[in-house]
From TrEMBL:
This is Xylose isomerase-like TIM barrel domain-containing protein. Gene3D superfamilies: Divalent-metal-dependent TIM barrel enzymes. It comes from the Bacteria. Pfam families: AP_endonuc_2.
Length: 326
């Protein structure tokens, strides 16, 4: 239930919520080099968003990873001219991946780097490896001006992620909360949000259907508003994090239609379960004869999500207004 205090926070914050375009909303178009990093900046600007979240590999041959220092500087300059903040994302936590992503962030004038671990092994062994990676990030980049976010990404549970942040000794490290990725760790969105909430500063917004899988849960991402995620409740709670100032600094619009992730954690596992290795996130390309239509649909889905999220924010605002006026 919405409290008077939270209703006031909503009215102070909702109209200026920092919405970011997420490159994954254009994943298929970027894999085929139809949408490139510079195009994302234009799309974000056209839709009056605060910034972009972009992976080092997005755009294949034309990705940030493949740009020269001059090209990275030009990308950063374009972002500044359009008054857009840039967040860099990578899909690993080891030294090589972090150095590459942080280097790109510094060369483009980006403000933040997102990472997530992809290690195989027993849970306690995996947690120790991640803690070592975080110690490297702290020791190397604590004074760089960059903030870092660890995303909950399908295999670790909320309390495990919170523990990694608490033990990190790194002020500029926090959690990125994804609307659906806790499903695969056999958790539910509002419970995961509650556990992670002291540490969340960034968000990936998407919707998904929950798939029951033999003692675990998978998720299939879908059009926002058509899945099982408690969309409005999650947004409401996230807006209200932080007493004096908003705690969440960036909401990434990550429409991911047809992305599927299997169960990774199970009901009857012990306290040190095996965590399997997994590939980077990828949505399968359709057959050749369906490709052009699918690429067009992806672009439309991305814009539709922006409009849908804004409509939900208006509903939240109306409910807060109604509570304060009665």
């Amino acid at each position: 239930m919405l409290t008077i205090n939270n209703a006031r926070k909503i009215l102070q914050r909702v109209d200026n919520l920092p919405l970011y375009l997420h490159a994954y909303a254009y994943h298929l178009n970027m894999r085929l080099e139809r949408v490139l990093p510079g195009d994302l900046l234009d799309i974000a600007h056209e839709n009056q968003l605060r910034g972009v979240k972009i992976h080092v590999l997005d755009g294949e041959r034309f990705s940030l990873e493949n740009m020269s220092d001059n090209e990275l500087a030009a990308f950063g300059e374009k972002a500044r001219q359009l008054n857009l903040d840039v967040h860099i994302e990578t899909s690993a936590s080891d030294k090589k991946a972090i150095d590459l992503a942080a280097g790109i962030a510094l060369k483009t004038g980006a403000s933040s780097v997102r990472f997530y671990p992809r290690y195989e092994g027993h849970l306690q062994e995996v947690m120790a490896m991640i803690a070592c990676d975080i110690a490297y990030i702290r020791d190397t980049y604590q004074g760089s001006g960059l903030t870092f976010t660890l995303e909950q990404h399908e295999d670790l549970k909320s309390h495990e992620l919170a523990m990694l942040i608490q033990d990190s000794g790194m002020d500029s490290l926090s959690l990125l909360f994804d609307f659906a990725n806790m499903i695969n760790a056999n958790e539910h969105p509002l419970d995961a949000l509650k556990t992670m909430s002291p540490h969340i500063t960034q968000v990936h917004i998407k919707d998904a259907l929950i798939v029951n899988e033999d003692g675990g849960l998978g998720h299939k991402a879908c059009i926002s508003g058509q899945g099982d995620m408690p969309f409005k409740a999650l947004l409401t709670d996230l807006i209200c994090l932080g007493d004096e100032e908003p705690q969440v600094m960036a909401y990434g619009l990550e429409e991911e239609v047809d992305y599927y992730a299997p169960a990774f954690r199970f009901e009857h596992e012990g306290d040190n379960p095996w965590i399997p290795y997994r590939q980077m996130s990828e949505t399968p390309l359709p057959e050749q004869n369906a490709l052009e239509a699918r690429l067009c649909k992806e672009k439309q889905d991305a814009v539709n999500q922006i409009n849908y999220v804004r409509s939900v924010l208006q509903q939240i605002k109306q409910e807060a207004t109604h509570l304060l006026n009665h």
